[in-house]
Amino acid sequence: MRLRWAAERPGALWHGDVCHVRLRDAEKGAQPVRIHALLDDASRYVVAIEARRAECEVDMLEVFVGALRRHGAPDAMYLDNGSTYRGQTLSLACARLGIALIHARPYDAPARGKMERFWSTLRRQCLTFTGALASLHELNVRLYAWLDEHYHRTVHGGLMGKTPAEVYEATPRPVDGLDDARLRDALTVHARRRVRRDNTLSMDGQDWETNLHFLAGRLVTVGRCLVVQDEPPWIEHQGQRFALHPVDPVRNARRSRAPDNLDAPHPARVPFDPPGALLDKSLGRRPRSGKEKP
User: Which long-range contacts (CB under 8 A, 24 or more apart) does 219-224 make?
Assistant: First the structure.
């Protein structure tokens, strides 16, 4: 049984989905594009939209973070059942922020009616007239212009003659207690990785290098904050954080290596003579320090 329903207020529920389109490039031809969007249920207001090349979890998380910074955290999110919204990072972040995560049943398009209706409107009123574009930036500029100048200002049939902007801006919402520190804590993930013999490890499909050469071959805890996608991960060792950096094989070819001669005396190493210590003990004399001459 299906019923018409709506959230009680703006900010109570967000819909999230990805639209598959093709960007018409004059030089490269048709290129696949994924448009990520988050839609407020009660007001039909689009809190985030962005065209990207892929629909991986990291792409969705970056769009999600932008919406959180501008509008605060919703009470719940109603998402598609695809792998983009089934990742452990999103589930953990929503649990830390107190956001209920709801997934639609597989192959149940009518259950996502509001989001499907928005995609239909977007295709009919915007994407049909974009023509050939040179970059994703040009497509995103047109998406933002269409939202601000047309969609958010147009009377919506499901809002009783009101516009999405009027409903979203007129309804008071709870005070937003989401600051940058809490957002970073929510989107910080940890994983166990083994450092290779060449002092590198893999994280999110990319190789990173550490200067802690004594960790080669050992299992370590690697942390990463997904608030800023370009921020490098770090190794947590003995209560401290040590930043990783991308591997540069060309630069490494010119770097000097540590000496391999383990018999060479270490400058900070204290000389120790076991027979001499036993002799000092038997004669009852004070042991000599490393700086004293015999």
Answer: 219/192, 219/193, 219/194, 219/195, 220/192, 220/193, 220/194, 220/195, 221/190, 221/191, 221/192, 222/190, 222/191, 222/192, 222/193, 223/188, 223/189, 223/190, 224/188, 224/189, 224/190, 224/191
User: What CATH code is carried by the domain that includes residue 153?
Assistant: 3.30.420.10
pLDDT tens across 6-26, in order? Answer: 888 999 999 999 999 888 766
Tell me: the pLDDT tens digits for 169-188? Answer: 988 776 666 888 888 999 99
**Residue 200 falls inside a structural domain:** yes
Select from 258, 262, 208, 254 the least CA-distant residue to 234.
208
pTM for this one? 0.77
Last residue of a domain, one of 174, 202, 219: 174
